[in-house]
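Morning - pyridoxal-5'-phosphate inputs below, output right after.
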Amino acid sequence: MKFVDLNTQFKALEPEIRAAIERVLTHGQFVMGPEVFELEEDLAGYTGAKHVVSCSSGTDALLMVLMAWEIGPGDAVFTTPFTFVATAEVIARVGAIPVFVDIDPRTYNIDPARLEEAVFTVKRGNKLRAKAVIPVDLFGLPADYDAIGRIANKHDLTVLADGCQSFGGKYRGKKVGTLGDATATSFFPAKPLGAYGDGGAVFTDDDHLAGLLRSIRIHGMGENQYDNVRIGITGRLDTLQAAILRCKLAVFDQELEARQRIANVYDTALSDRFTTPHIPDGYRSAWAQYTIQAEDRELLRQHLASAGIPSAVYYPAPLHKQPAFPDCNQDNPLLPVSESLSESVVSLPIHPYLTQPDQLEIIEGILHLKK
Ligand SMILES: *Cc1c(COP(=O)(O)O)cnc(C)c1O
């Protein structure tokens, strides 16, 4: 059994994917070829975002937005410590300070009440400018964008949604890609919409921002690559990845439904004995992960592993405890929820090609241990 089964997905899509790759090999435009722009149109149509700027990874998607917003030294950017390192890494990378805000214990996403407290603290401190917030849609569930937006408006913060796990998710009738001033997503192979290598995209309705991003992703180009008007990065998405992603986008809604069905079965089987994911009314998760809380996580994981059942821990340590962020309050008394959940969360297989017998085996494995 696999935690994420890309082989079965490939077998299901093999003729289309091979033909798409063949077309790229034939036309030979490996960088910024036609599939890149076709994918951007497909993604704009899918999400309803006005602009989609594809790029080399989810990390670069986040980074390019911070660069376009000219966030840097002296700026505070608020985010959660209960996320993949890239979310906070890009903040430090541009020279700004990540200010970690604790999460809601039920959704694992940034707690809006704690966010506003953190903004007040930064403002009172008078050392940093409060500039932006990066809510993370952890495990595929969108953050509470209405509440975050109200705080952002009040305090003049821009909102960069880290939708690297939530492409396909929904919040109050709106799709991920339309929930912040800009949204970053990732096409890393294991994400809900995954390529066969690295890839990402930024979504925004802001014409000016989209123009800046298109420049930044190609070395800060102006009229052409040899007209260098700002500092940028090598941030392009490969044509081959775009071609592959177009094939996968065609079946993406079916895959989301499969993930939802699997989540429902887990909920029914496990919710009496474990804390299962909480999806508030009006939200749709993209189910990047199905994460439960276990009192004795290591025992459960060992027991599953001995039965050949894979599991994973996202994330074993909140980012303020990581050596990469030495100045970020290693002993921050304000982050107890992130600290305690990092000790109990465990994620179960939920890829769309998980078979019913395999899922029953997982469930039996878990319940057997509990008795
Ligand atoms: C995967 C991920 C990223 C980074 O995406 P890459 O494509 O791997 O660079 C950023 N934030 C979150 C929350 C992620 O899960």
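Note: The pocket of pyridoxal-5'-phosphate is lined by residues 57-59, 83-84, 86-87, 136, 162, 164-165, 186, 188, 198, 200 (CB under 6 Å).

O.
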